[in-house]
Design a protein that fits this description.
Number of domains of chain B: 1
Strand content of chain B: under 5%
Helix content of chain B: over 70%
Radius of gyration of chain B: 21 Å
Shape of chain A: globular
Structural class of chain A: alpha/beta
Oligomer: heterodimer
Strand order of the largest sheet of chain A: 11-8-12-13-7-14-15
Number of helices of chain B: 6
CATH topology of the largest domain in chain A: Rossmann fold
Distance between the termini of chain B: 12 Å
CATH class of the largest domain in chain A: Alpha Beta
Mean pLDDT of chain B: 89
Order of helices and strands of chain A: HHHEEEHHEEEHEHEEEEHEHEHHEE
Distance between the termini of chain A: 42 Å
Chain lengths: ~300, ~170
């Protein structure tokens, strides 16, 4: 069942490819379709599929720049103007929450990227939601049945965003804890993946999402507009994010956030996070580590 | 009696040809006006908030008539087959089938497919405006042509018919 769902997500994602490339992508076996994490298209090279064991060429005719433009046209339903702000950031979210990353020649205007043209590469990242990913940590983060302020910490690629999304979903539904109103500042659309206003990845019935604006501004907007009980944000990176979280904490809102880092000690060395730690905004820190093929979760109480 | 019926038919046939020629001019001018009006709607929609192209074309199709309605509807349907035919090619192919716009009208309208949906709202609006103005000018020209030539065609048809009747009788 899980495998079928995984290959369904793959087939939905390859729907954005031009016909020739779509045929090549669908020539993969169903088992492989379910394991593909990304499809990579580079001008002048055959398309490749990124699998857990590495990148595999699909062996077809080299990709042309024209086909990358066609990819953008299909993905935006011939409405590039509606996704221009995303394209300027180098990505585009399509139905199903799949993400298309784009590279090419940047056209600059007033020091900012105004547009990308003459595309050289694209990647299609297949979105697969893992419901229940938060089960190993949920009890530990909900003393008295209510979610406490939590920071999720791990190096890239270990599933911070997946865990955050599933925690939001569980808290919003009230799975294993009391249901709470969650507001999510999803700057790059990686957590809820809004498509025409609808989250493509499930974040629960009591979740409000703001997307496409800097995290700090998004957090303040949510705080003012949506009266949240939990404020969630993916990847704290700037001092403004910390300031916004501090304001929210002052309003009695529960915080749920992620950060890149090997561990608590690693954060202490970085100025942005030092402030965060000094203010003791979080009660729990969940560290994700790789144990061989598997991931393990370690909860540390901070206050 | 047979001669009389034949003569009447001949006169009526020639008259019909004259009226038909005048009607062709009128239809061309009306089609160009309808297309220009549809493009004005496109501009309005783009000004309101640049909706996705499918939505925009559908809204305009619902408020248009004649070749403009046909073009917009065909393009909306074609958006489901973008993996096989890009929008620009689809637009050009559909425009090529609009005989009633005349060669110049089609030539003015064709490049718009390279602009719609591809640039930001402002650039699309400007592009659409240029094409709309070109179509309006053409429509005006054909309207003047119709006023000038339409009557001539009608009179020529009728008098040509009368001349043939006299000649044959």
């Amino acid at each position: 069942m899980q495998k079928t769902k995984a290959s369904q997500a793959y087939r939905q994602a390859v729907g954005a490819l031009p016909q020739r490339l779509r045929r090549e992508a669908l020539a993969l076996s169903e088992a492989d379709q379910g394991r593909v994490e990304e499809l990579r298209l580079r001008t002048g090279w055959p398309m490749t599929a990124l699998l857990p064991e590495g990148e595999r060429s699909l062996g077809g005719v080299p990709v042309e720049s024209r086909e990358l433009e066609q990819l953008l046209e299909i993905a935006s339903q011939a409405s590039v103007h509606t996704v221009l702000p995303q394209v300027r950031q180098g990505y585009l979210t399509i139905q199903g929450g799949h993400r298309i990353g784009l590279c090419g020649t940047a056209a600059m205007e007033a020091g900012q990227i105004h547009a990308l043209r003459a595309f050289s590469s694209a990647s299609i990242r297949i979105a697969r939601q893992i419901k229940g990913a938060c089960a190993p940590v949920l009890d530990g983060l909900c003393p008295g049945g209510r979610l406490a302020d939590t920071l999720i910490l791990s190096p890239p690629g270990l599933g911070k965003t997946t865990l955050l999304r599933d925690l939001i979903r569980a808290v919003s539904w009230g799975e294993g804890c009391c249901p709470l109103r969650v507001s999510l500042a999803d700057e790059r659309g990686e957590v809820a993946a809004l498509f025409q206003g609808e989250p493509q990845l499930e974040v629960g019935p009591r979740t409000d999402v703001v997307e496409g604006c800097p995290k700090a501004q998004g957090l303040m907007l949510l705080l003012r507009a949506m009266n949240p009980q939990v404020l969630a944000v993916d990847e704290i990176t700037a001092p403004e994010d910390v300031a916004a979280l501090e304001t929210a904490a002052g309003c009695g809102v529960t915080l749920l956030a992620t950060a890149h880092g090997e561990g608590w000690e690693d954060l202490e060395r970085r100025p942005v996070y030092r402030a965060l730690m000094e203010k003791r905004l979080f009660r729990y820190c969940v560290q994700i580590r790789r144990d061989g093929e598997k991931r393990s979760y370690h909860i540390e109480e901070l206050r | 009696m047979v001669h009389l019926i034949g003569a009447t038919l001949l006169a009526a046939g020639c008259g019909y040809l004259g009226f038909q020629a005048a009607e062709t001019l009128r239809r061309k001018s009306r089609s160009l006006r309808q297309m220009a009006q549809a493009l004005a709607l496109v501009e309005g929609e783009l000004e309101l908030g640049s909706p996705p192209l499918g939505q925009l074309l559908e809204r305009v199709a619902n408020r248009s008539a004649g070749p403009a309605k046909r073009l917009m509807e065909a393009c909306v349907q074609g958006l489901d087959r973008l993996d096989r035919e890009d929008f620009s090619t689809l637009w050009r192919r559909q425009v090529a089938g609009l005989e009633e716009l005349g060669e110049e009208g089609r030539a003015a309208l064709s490049p718009l497919g390279d602009i719609l949906g591809r640039y930001d709202g402002q650039a699309q609006r400007e592009g659409t405006q240029v094409v709309r103005q070109a179509l309006e000018k053409l429509a005006q020209r054909w309207e003047e042509e119709r006023r000038r030539q339409g009557r001539v065609y009608q009179v020529l048809g009728l008098s040509g018919g009368a001349f043939l009747v006299i000649l044959l009788l």
